[in-house]
Write a structure and sequence with these properties.
The chain is mostly helical and 64 residues long. The chain has one domain. The protein contains 3 helices and no strands. It is globular, with a radius of gyration of 11 Å. This is YqzH family protein.
Amino acid sequence: MEKKLILKMIKNCFKQYYSEIDSLPMSSSDLETLVERIIQIKVEQPAVDLYEAVNDTVYEFLTG
């Protein structure tokens, strides 16, 4: 799976929640953890839409 695409999707998702900031409110290690979690979800559940997996994972990160 293309990590660059997932990173771009994560950044776009964060922009929905934080439209007024220029950088992500997380460290690079947190970002890498999110990418790996999304890849893991897609491997375990291939039928899940990538967009849904990204949005769910970012939401979980923000709320948990």
